[in-house]
Amino acid sequence: MTRDTGEFLSILVQATRASKILKIGTSNGYSTLWLASVLLSCGRIYTVEVNPQKISEARLNFEQAGVSAKITQLAGDVSEVLEHLTERVDFIFLDADRKAYLSLAEPLFNTLVSLVVYLFVIMPFLIAMSWQISPFG
Fold it and tell me: What does the pLDDT look like over 56-97, one tens digit per residue?
């Protein structure tokens, strides 16, 4: 994720006044740090990750940034974790296995969420297509 994307996410969180965020796909926690940086003081982020090594790395990053008190890390496969998530969330950032996005749609919308944002990298597709585009003129 780029800095621009992080800043954009921060603006969305502020604009929606989200106080409960679900982040699917933690990795090293970089994007979660952007979300936490603008989260209301009473807010909470639930972040889901299946890889134990990434969970540990993210935990360390959250502690070093001083935001770990705002973050609950949920370990496991997202489809199983969602079954046990009973709390309403205001904002979902889906940044995980892109092949699973459609299968997650219904469970995510059943969380009574205000806004769902997903990260979908289209740049490789644009690069591939650029060879087929003729210049104008």
Answer: 999 999 999 999 999 999 999 888 888 888 788 888 887 877
Instruction: Tell me 72's DSSP state.
Output: E
The whole model's pTM is what?
Answer: 0.78
User: Rounded distance, CA 137 to CA 125, Å?
Assistant: 24
| Whether the Cβ atoms of residue 24 and residue 96 lie closer than 8 Å to each other | yes
Which residue's entry shows tokens 């690069």? 127
DSSP string, 51-109: -HHHHHHHHHHHHHHT-GGGEEEEES-HHHHHHH--S--SEEEE-S-GGGHHHHHHHHH
Reported as a single tens digit per residue, the pLDDT across 3-32 is: 888 888 898 889 888 899 999 889 999 999
